[in-house]
Amino acid sequence: MIDRATVDRIYAAANVVEVVSDFVSLKKKGVNYMACCPFHNEKTPSFVVSPAKGLYKCFGCGKGGNAVTFVMEHERLTYVEALKWVAKKYGIEVEEREETPEEKQRNDDRESMMVVNSWASDYFAKQMYETDEGLSVGRSYFASRGLSDATIKRFGLGYCSESRASRDKDTMTQDALRAGYKEHYLVDTGLTIKRETGGYYDRFCGRVMFPIHSISGRVVAFSGRALASDNRAKYLNSPESIVYSKSHNLYGIYFAKSAIARENHCILVEGNIDVVQLHQKGIENVVAPLGTALTVEQVRLIARFTPNITLLFDGDKAGVKAALKGVDLVLKEGLNVRVVVLPEGEDPDSYARSHTADQIRAYVEENQRDFISFKSSLYAREVERDPIRKGELIEDIVGSIVLIPNKIQRSVFIKECAKIMDVDEQLIVSEVVRRSVGAQYGAEAREFVAREQARQSREEVAKEALTRGPHTAGSSMIELEREITGYLIKYGHLTLDYREGRETVHFNVAESIFDSLEGDEIYFRDERYRALVACYKEHNQELGVGVKVPEHYFIELDNPEASSAAVDILTEGDNHKQSVIWKEHDIASESEEERLGKIIPKAIILYKSKAIEAIISTLNEELAALPEDDDAGLARILEAIAMLNNERNKIAKQIARNIL
Ligand SMILES: [Zn+2]
User: Fold this and answer.
1) How many angstroms is it from 248 CA to the middle of ligand 1?
2) Least confident of 322-326, 361-365, 435-439, 542-546
């Protein structure tokens, strides 16, 4: 934890132009600076840095934030790490809470294990290049796979000697002990196995070695491939330890991360050798799970760099099975998944060796399918003749659609499924809804269903009444929260006129927002907007009503998500017209004020009606779940519903007056 005072000092010192310039070369343009965006591929610059606002914003991909979140995003650091990075640049001392003795011991252990792993990685490389056994067994194996010395060096590949001379097979362990490394750490990293009879055994003896790098490039574990065709497992990985968890790591992530971010696309293959082979061909956005089925944590690791994942698998049965499992996992995390199956008899390694990078890219491009066409093509022949099989397949596809968290995406796939399987779309919708209500994804799915129903009922009325608002009508609650937060932080200080029927009412934007929502104990659901509202309130109390709260308070909020939401709001619409935000004055024009006087009250009313609607529907659910004899509970809920209904009627009147 870094204390608030230090965070403030860091933000005060950080100059967004200086920080961004450490990574991107900026060109001055007017009061701002421009460059090609480091977060997506582009040829004409749409990445803008505003020193006056202390923010950056890409109008191509939408990324935006302050100096600290730039470092966070660009270097893939955590928020605290990014704060420390900026602190270091400006010579600010960061005071942190002191570690407890246990924490200190654990950190020392971690560090020692990393050091042992790093030593072992160098050792295996030397063994391969500097011993006869290494050259004749290890190096020649990699040569047979067509790997160059440059590739071998890049990935730190090596060989763990079998040491035929020594019956104990403990050459590495003995060398490590002689070099001063403690037995304790050699055993904990799994490099050494202690024999029950005393003495040691090298876990990886006789194997070619693939060091496994963490996202920041440190060796945390190894994967060893057996060469002799005896009974040993083909691949052996380091055991789990305090520095390594196989379900949280991906082979090649350190070497692939910038390519994945740059191309906004990640290719997932099965084996380490596939990763190395494709990298050698110049296709660098490739990683592999570590000998396990893909895990949620691995998918989330990829999601830090891109939402687009392509699974590239062998054409054999095992490959297809692995791909099918992977698909659902990726969908459930809300990412976009495509599948490419290689021609039969090929794996990514063999395919990469016999084709050029362009051919491989073209193959992926032409053969990638979304999960519906992938699944339906798998069973196309069976399904054609067998209606029962077809029903099962639709069930299966619906099972995947249900996992997709995003509503819009879900409806796109419902349409596609209906088309490909040639069935009525409504049928699939109702099947999705039915399955959604099932136990597994209960809460989330029920919310989806409730939302759908709510949308059809009262929302229609409100929409009708409010069609004159520019973007309020038909917005979701979260969208409205964003919109209202925007009015607050941009125009909270303004006093506007609002015509209600024949009367004209003056209102201060901030007061009106706080009065009408918090008066009824309605609070935003989205944490980002709640944080921005709290920040506004804090400074508004200091400055007083009618004084503009400087934008940098929001941009430099000690909360990276809220701060990027603020940047997003404060820069919206800027790409199309020179709006108030980038200009160096803050006075809204008269017509703007008139416009705001109309739309702000509408947004508030609409939000309030939706919030009340949501509370009522929760209460109705509670009512349904109430035990029959709970009279007190019944009375309490009915009373609450009556009160809310009352409020709802008032709002309906307001809406009616508003459009007269
Ligand atoms: Zn961009």
Assistant:
1) 28
2) 435-439
pLDDT of amino acid 97:
65
Contacts of 87 (CB under 8 A, 6+ apart): 6, 10, 93, 94
What string of DSSP letters covers 150-189?
Answer: HHHHHHT-EEE---TT-TT--HHHHHHHHTT--HHHHHHT
- 356-381 residue pLDDT tens: 999 999 999 998 888 888 877 777 76
Q: Are 421 and 390 in contact (CB under 8 A)?
A: yes
**Ion ligand 1: residue ranges with CB closer than 5 A:** 37, 39-40, 58, 60-61
Q: How far is the CA of 252 from the centre of ligand 1 (A)?
A: 25
Region of poorest pLDDT, from 174-188, 286-300, 562-576, 645-659: 645-659
Centroid of ligand 1 to alpha carbon of 41 (angstroms): 7
128 CB neighbour count, 10 Å cutoff: 25
Continuous H helices in 271-379: 272-280, 296-303, 317-332, 348-354, 357-367, 371-378
* Distance from Cα 30 to the centre of ligand 1, integer Å: 20
Query: Quick one: what percent of the chain has pLDDT higher than 90?
Result: 29
Quote the CA–CA distance of 61 and 92 in Å, as a whole number: 32
Of 195-204, 399-408, 537-546, give the lowest mean pLDDT range. 399-408
- Residue 316 tokens, joined: 């054999």
Tokens 């004084």, residue located: 547
CA of 154 to the centre of ligand 1 (A): 29
What whole-number distance in Å separates Cα of residue 91 and Cα of residue 486? 35
Structure tokens at 645: 């209904």
Amino acid identity at 330: V
Judge contact between 376 and 420, C-beta under 8 A. yes
Residue 142 and residue 124 in contact, taking contact as beta carbons nearer than 8 Å: no
Structure-token match 């084996």, residue found: 271
Q: How far is the CA of 48 from the centre of ligand 1 (A)?
A: 10
Asked whether the whole model's pTM tops 0.70, one would answer no
Give the integer Cα–Cα distance in Å for 403 and 406: 9
